[in-house]
């Protein structure tokens, strides 16, 4: 996997310490309503396109860059779907990270879907009724992208008031 240089620099000093990092996750649709997915080289599983913004890079810029780098597809960002902190991840080398994912709905505007770097084994467009196996979080993010709901985020607990009726997408 292509680990950004700035993370390698941090790891050289921090070792396996848990890093809290920004992430962008993109639900990319084409003109036929299909969603763009990649089969990740690190896990072998199908997933939404995702990545880590470089220092100083805006989330939308990172999204457009990551989509093109990983899939060869040119896209524009339409809106923020959710902001979500993931569970911590432990990588095979022992490194630990946790991500605050900004999930973005995007629209393809050009390019040809293909494996465009070493992060993907396969890349493809999938009709919503023909999706490959995906985890519940990815499926929830696709469902959220299809609705016109406001941006989702985990509500803060207000002292003395219980948050009711909220579920992560």
UniProtKB/TrEMBL annotation:
Q: Which residues form the Nudix hydrolase domain?
A: 19-150
Statement: the UniProt record of this protein carries the keyword Phosphoprotein: no
SUPFAM superfamilies membership: Nudix
Which keywords annotate this record? Hydrolase
Q: In its UniProt entry, what is this protein called?
A: ADP-ribose pyrophosphatase YjhB, NUDIX family
- Pfam families named among the record's database cross-references: NUDIX
Which species expresses this protein natively? Actinacidiphila paucisporea
**GTP-binding as UniProt keyword:** no
Its needed co-factors are: Mg(2+)
């Amino acid at each position: 996997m292509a680990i950004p240089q700035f993370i390698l620099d941090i790891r050289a000093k921090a070792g396996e310490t848990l890093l809290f990092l920004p992430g962008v996750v993109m639900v990319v649709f084409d003109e036929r309503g299909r969603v763009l997915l990649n089969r990740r080289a690190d896990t072998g599983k199908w997933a939404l396109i995702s990545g880590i913004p470089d220092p100083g890079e805006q989330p939308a810029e990172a999204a457009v860059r990551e989509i093109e780098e990983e899939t060869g597809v040119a896209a524009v960002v339409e809106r923020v779907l959710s902001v979500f902190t993931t569970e911590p991840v432990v990588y095979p080398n022992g490194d630990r990270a946790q991500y605050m994912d900004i999930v973005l709905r995007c629209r393809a505007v050009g390019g040809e879907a293909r494996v465009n770097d070493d992060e993907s084994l396969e890349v493809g467009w999938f009709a919503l009724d023909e999706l490959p196996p995906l985890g519940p979080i990815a499926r929830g993010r696709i469902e959220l992208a299809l609705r016109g709901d406001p941006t989702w985020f985990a509500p803060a607990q207000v002292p003395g008031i219980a948050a009711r009726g909220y579920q992560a997408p």
